[in-house]
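Sample intake sheet
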Amino acid sequence: MEIKTWIEVAAIGGAALSMGLGAIGAAVGEGYTAACASEAISRSPDRSGDIFKNMLMGEAIAETAAIFALLIAMMLLFTQIGSETTITIFVLFSAGLCMGFGAIGSGIGSGLPAGACCIGISRQPMAKDKITTNMLIGSSIAQTPAILALATSLILLFSNFEGRPVSPTWAALVGAGIAAGVGAIGSAIGEGLVAQAACEGIARTPQTSSRVTNIMFLGMAVSETTAIYGLLIAMILIFKTFPESTALAPAMALLGAGLCMGIGAVGPGIGEGLTGSKAIAWVARNESESAILARTMLVGQAVSESTGIYALVIAFVMIFVL
């Protein structure tokens, strides 16, 4: 087939991956929010109006990641492709792959605090404003890994790769999409776990809201780091020029770097979120010990982070040494 035909195939395939994968997380997050809202309304029917409003706000934020995926899918399907080269095939495929995977974690992560907010309002209606504010902040932060994936997809689509050798550039671009897209999943879910615990903690003990929110920011910031590692590897793979080679090993090294960092970022992000969620839950119950709980959380998150750093180091070796 001609290059133009392959480009059309890649654009359609990339759009399918972007929207197909991107629909998973938002749907799960929205469903979880609605399930918690039903439980909350059955517990406190007199608060159904407030609970319903918060359910809609939480679902709207969880929907954002799917909208990002929809945007990339529409661009792939309807944007006029300026460059018709072999590399363009891999650019389009990688952009859709990146955004599709990148939306999964944020959709789920944003739904977790939204669900906790609905149940929290039913248990502690007088703290409704504090719980809602915390939910909006936490759910929004959980969307940042998807935004990193969106930025990577847009950079892929609008960068000029003319003059680059087809091999191993094709592998670098596909690896970049995997690194940023898959690498966003764990961090987003981890951030959602932290924000969920914060909403539950404020509902349990509203007077601890300030301390809980501060530690929530800290826990979410650490959980975000592995998604940033994925973004870093993606940017190196996109912007670094690699010498032409017909050998398979150099291409596999670059593709492997993206796979290594993308997959290697999933576990640490979730692990750090689990650590942060438990620390926050107990800060709400025992605020006087918040300092030692925060220190324990940071140490635990640092140990979980180490595995993501190992993946980052191996990815660097594959890019700069092999």
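Comment: The mean pLDDT is 96. The chain is about 85% helix and 0% strand.
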